[in-house]
Write a structure and sequence with these properties.
Elements (H helix, E strand, L loop, with lengths): L4 E2 L2 E2 L4 H4 L24 E5 L5 E5 L11 E5 L4 E9 L1 H9 L11 E4 L2 H11 L2 H14 L5 E7 L5 E7 L7 H11 L2 E6 L2 H8 L10 H4 L9 H6 L6 H4 L14 H8 L9 E2 L4 E8 L4 E5 L10 E4 H12 L30 H22 L6 H7 L1
Parallel strand pairs: 9-10
Antiparallel strand pairs: 1-2, 3-4, 3-6, 5-6, 5-7, 8-9, 11-12, 12-13, 13-14
Helix pairs in contact: 4-5
Length: 385
C-alpha cells in the first residue's frame, strides 16, 4: 500500500484515499486500496462548489480516482466537478442519503480538458459580481428573501441562485429580470440557515471548522430537550451556532446522557433518614453522583453527595420501612475530604508580596549603609597626623 509521507513521518494515509481535494465535505476513501474496488460499481460521487454533491454513471468506464476533475452531464450543457468517491463507498453514501441505486442516471463525459477548465474559470469569475447585482435586484423588487450564494455551471450556460426566506416567495418576476440581466438560464434553490453556514464555512466556538462545512450533509432537528438532558444552561447565546440555530453538536451525546440518566433515581423521590428527609437538587449523570439537600435549596450548606447505587439502596430501605442513620455511606459522603483546588491552596499574589519584601530589604540595606560611619583610609590617617 502506498503511503502519504509528510516530512519524515509516515501518516499511514493512502494517496488514492486522500486525493487532490481542497473542498468542503472532504471524505477519506478507506476502500481505495482494495484490488478491483473501483469496478464494484459504475457510480461515482462528484462534488461541485462548496457542499453540493451528486452521483453520476461512469458509462465510458474511465479510470477515475479521488481528486480527478471531470466533465459531467448537465441540463443543458455540461458541468465541471471533482471526484470524491469511487467504488463500494458510493453505494453506501447513497443509501445513507436515502437515494436509490438508479438515481445516478446522468453520465460522466470525460476528464476535464484545458478548454473546459478555461470556460470553468471564466464562469466562476462572474459569481461574486452576479450575487451582488442579484441582491440589489431582489431589493428593488421588494422581495423578502436573501440571496446567499450564486453558482455558475461549468460551461457558463446556467446559474443556481441559493436563497433564504422565512415565507413563500413569488420570484417569477425576479427570474425574468435575472435572465435579461445575465443572459443565462436561472435556477432558484431555497436552502436553510444550516445549509448556508455549511456553504460559507467558518470556525465554531470549539475552535474547529464547522461540522456542516466538513462532514455533515444531512441535518437533524435539534431541540432544547437535548440541552436539558445534558444539564446545559439554556442560554441562547451559548447554544446557538454560526447559523443562529441550535448547535448540531447538542445531538452528538444525547443518547449517552439518556442512557446514563436511566441509572439515576427520579427527581421526585425523596430519601428518609432517622432525623431528616432529603430531596434531590442536582445530578451528575456521567459520574453517577446525586446531590441531596434537606430543604430543597441547591445553595444549602447541608448538601450531601452520594452515588446512585447508594441512593437506590436507601430507596429500597425506605420501601421496607427502614431509615438509615445517615444518608452517606463509607465510600461517599460528608466524611470524605472534599477536593481542594490547587489554586485555593495558596495566594495568587504571593509572588507580588515577595517582590515587595525584596524591595523593602534592599531599601533598608541602603539606608543602613548611609547611616554607618565611614572609615578613613591609611593616607587620610597619615595626613591627619
Amino acid at each position: 500500500m502506498k503511503e502519504f509521507v509528510c516530512g519524515s513521518y509516515q501518516r499511514g494515509l493512502s494517496i488514492k484515499a486522500v486525493g487532490r481535494q481542497d473542498k468542503q465535505l472532504n471524505t477519506y476513501d478507506w476502500l481505495a486500496d482494495v484490488p478491483g474496488g473501483d469496478r464494484m460499481t459504475d457510480l461515482v460521487e462528484v462534488q461541485f462548489k462548496n457542499t453540493r454533491k451528486d452521483y453520476y454513471l461512469n458509462s465510458n468506464h474511465l479510470s477515475l480516482s479521488k481528486g480527478d476533475v471531470v466533465a459531467v452531464e448537465a441540463s443543458p450543457g455540461h458541468d465541471i466537478g471533482t471526484v470524491t468517491l469511487t467504488g463500494a463507498l458510493v453505494t453506501l453514501q447513497m443509501s445513507k442519503t436515502h437515494l436509490k441505486s438508479d438515481a445516478g442516471t446522468k453520465r460522466i463525459y470525460r476528464i476535464a480538458r484545458e478548454s473546459d477548465m478555461e470556460k470553468y474559470a471564466e464562469a466562476k469569475a462572474l459569481e461574486h459580481s452576479t450575487m451582488i447585482k442579484s441582491r440589489q435586484i431582489a431589493k428593488n423588487l421588494e422581495l423578502d428573501m436573501k440571496i446567499g450564494d450564486v453558482e455558475y455551471q461549468g460551461d457558463g450556460s446556467k446559474a443556481i441562485f441559493y436563497y433564504i426566506a422565512d415565507q413563500r416567495v413569488d420570484f417569477r418576476t425576479l427570474i425574468k429580470v435575472l435572465a435579461e440581466e445575465f443572459h443565462v438560464r436561472i435556477e432558484m434553490r431555497q436552502i436553510g440557515a444550516r445549509q448556508e453556514a455549511g456553504r460559507i464555512g467558518g470556525i465554531g466556538p470549539c475552535g474547529r471548522e464547522l461540522c456542516c462545512a466538513t462532514w455533515m450533509k444531512n441535518f437533524v432537528t435539534v431541540s432544547t430537550a437535548a440541552a436539558r438532558s445534558q444539564n446545559v444552561s439554556l442560554n441562547p447565546q451559548k447554544l446557538a451556532g454560526q447559523c443562529a440555530k441550535l448547535k448540531c453538536c447538542l445531538n452528538y451525546e444525547v443518547s449517552i446522557y439518556m442512557d446514563a440518566a436511566s441509572h439515576i433515581p427520579a427527581r421526585d423521590i425523596s430519601l428518609e433518614t432517622a432525623d431528616k428527609v432529603y430531596y434531590q437538587v442536582k445530578t451528575d449523570v456521567i459520574a453517577g453522583l446525586v446531590c441531596y439537600s434537606p430543604d430543597k435549596n441547591i445553595n444549602s450548606a447541608d448538601l450531601v453527595t452520594i452515588t446512585a447505587k447508594r441512593a437506590f439502596e436507601v430507596i429500597e430501605m425506605n420501601r421496607q420501612g427502614q431509615k438509615p442513620a445517615a444518608l452517606s455511606d463509607d465510600d461517599m459522603g460528608q466524611g470524605k475530604p472534599a477536593i481542594v483546588d490547587l489554586a485555593e491552596q495558596d495566594s495568587l499574589t504571593r509572588f507580588d508580596k515577595a517582590k515587595k519584601n525584596k524591595h523593602k530589604n534592599r531599601n533598608r540595606h541602603n539606608r543602613d549603609r548611609n547611616r554607618s560611619p565611614k572609615s578613613n583610609t591609611p593616607q587620610e590617617e597619615a595626613t591627619a597626623e
